[in-house]
């Protein structure tokens, strides 16, 4: 497959009175043609900085970037017409209608007028096209932003949080639109915090933390590499869970309490759970392995999983995860 987007060793440093902060620290990313590619990272990880640098809005301190095989930012004027992008919150003139807004953008970009009608239909704004933008909800403004990015029929579409403000139906419509665009040959880079959607829609992902890549590949491969060792444990009705939990924790288990069951997060050998509890005449009604999902992998790789009794601050994330131990109970 052909790489539409290539980033290698990208660096960006900010200096302030507090010192030097590395927003990007040798970041790498490759996106193949015709894919929907998820670009994921916690707040402050360097995700938006990467997109802004790629589009020539920020000057990097080092590294290499290429779009459609051309080095950027040097060749950005040559490829800009083939790139559609939304980065951060889009801004529009409130007194203009959606149709006026897109018509002006089409005129400025040399896009045929018929395309305005087509993109309004695509994003579901056909019937509100002549309403002023100031009457739009956040989700409708987001739809208008996506329409503006699609005007040029780009080969590469970069969307930063396109589901922001959308209701569940709108999120599903956006998912279908992204898949249809990819099937038509467009390459889509999608940044989102809705990890369940990313898992459903994307062919591949790149995860960034503290300015570095911590995972990349197809969604299936990333999940396979980080297979969960967690198990769901339920006890017989009427049995007090507290004794079982205290007993397992005393033996080194990482236990998370749910409403009517608990999970053991480091169960290298689930049979040990049965043995330890049975010795105290505590018997199970369920012992189920939990498959890894993108959210749990993301939290593990970025070090942003909630910790009981602690308030994680922005930028408190792991640059690289510690190697997995074999799990408890082996």
What's the number of domains? Answer: 2
Estimated helix fraction: 25-40%
CA-CA gap between termini: 42 Å
User: Structural class of the secondary elements?
Assistant: alpha/beta
**From the structure provided, what is the oligomeric state, counting identical versus distinct chains?**
single chain
Taken as a percent bin, the fraction of beta residues is 25-35%
Round the Cα radius of gyration to an integer and report it: 24 Å
Question: How can the largest sheet be summarized?
Answer: 6 strands, mixed
Number of strands: 14
> Please, what is the average pLDDT?
89
Catalogue the unreliable spans.
Answer: 319-325
Task: Write the CATH architecture name of the largest domain.
Answer: 3-Layer(aba) Sandwich
CATH classification, class level of the largest domain: Alpha Beta
Overall shape: it is: elongated
Cross-sheet strand order for the largest sheet? 6-7-8-3-9-10
Going by CATH, the homologous superfamily of the largest domain would be P-loop containing nucleotide triphosphate hydrolases
What does the model show?
- This protein is an alpha/beta fold and 330 residues long.
- It contains eleven helices and 14 strands.
- The protein has helices spanning 47-54, 76-79, 98-109, 114-122, 138-150, 168-183, 195-201, 219-225, 241-250, 271-279, 294-302, and strands at 3-16, 19-32, 36-40, 62-67, 70-72, 83-86, 156-160, 187-191, 204-209, 212-218, 231-235, 255-257, 262-264, 284-289.
- A hairpin with a 4-residue loop joins strand 12 and strand 13.
- Residues 319-325 have low confidence and may be disordered.
């Amino acid at each position: 497959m052909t790489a539409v987007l290539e980033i290698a060793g990208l660096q960006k440093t900010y200096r302030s009175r507090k010192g030097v902060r590395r927003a990007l620290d040798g970041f790498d990313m490759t996106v193949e043609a015709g894919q929907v590619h998820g670009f994921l990272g916690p707040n402050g990880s360097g995700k938006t900085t990467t997109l802004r640098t790629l589009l020539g809005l920020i000057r990097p301190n080092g590294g290499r970037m290429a779009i459609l095989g051309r080095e950027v930012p040097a060749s950005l004027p040559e490829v800009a017409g083939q790139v559609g992008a939304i980065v951060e919150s889009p801004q529009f003139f409130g007194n203009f209608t959606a149709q006026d807004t897109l018509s002006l953008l089409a005129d400025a970009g040399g896009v045929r007028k018929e395309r305005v009608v087509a993109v309004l239909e695509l994003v579901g704004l056909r019937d509100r096209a002549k309403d002023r933008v100031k009457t739009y909800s956040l989700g409708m403004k987001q739809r208008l932003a996506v329409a503006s990015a699609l005007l040029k029929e780009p080969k590469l579409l970069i969307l930063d949080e396109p589901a922001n403000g959308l209701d569940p139906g709108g999120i599903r419509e956006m998912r279908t639109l992204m898949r249809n665009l990819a099937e038509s040959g467009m390459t889509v880079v999608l940044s989102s915090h809705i990890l369940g959607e990313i898992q459903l829609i994307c062919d591949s992902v790149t995860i960034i933390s503290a300015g570095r890549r911590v995972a990349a590949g197809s969604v299936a491969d990333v999940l396979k590499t980080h297979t969960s060792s967690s198990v769901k444990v339920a006890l017989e009705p009427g049995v007090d869970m507290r004794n079982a939990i205290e007993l397992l924790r005393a033996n080194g288990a990482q236990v998370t309490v749910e409403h009517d069951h608990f999970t053991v997060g480091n169960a290298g050998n689930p049979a040990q759970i049965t043995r330890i509890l049975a010795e105290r005449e505590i018997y199970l009604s369920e012992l189920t392995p939990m498959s890894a999902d993108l959210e749990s992998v993301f939290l593990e790789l970025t070090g942003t999983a909630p910790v009981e009794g602690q308030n994680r601050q922005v930028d408190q994330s792991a640059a690289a995860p510690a190697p997995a131990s074999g799990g408890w109970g082996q």
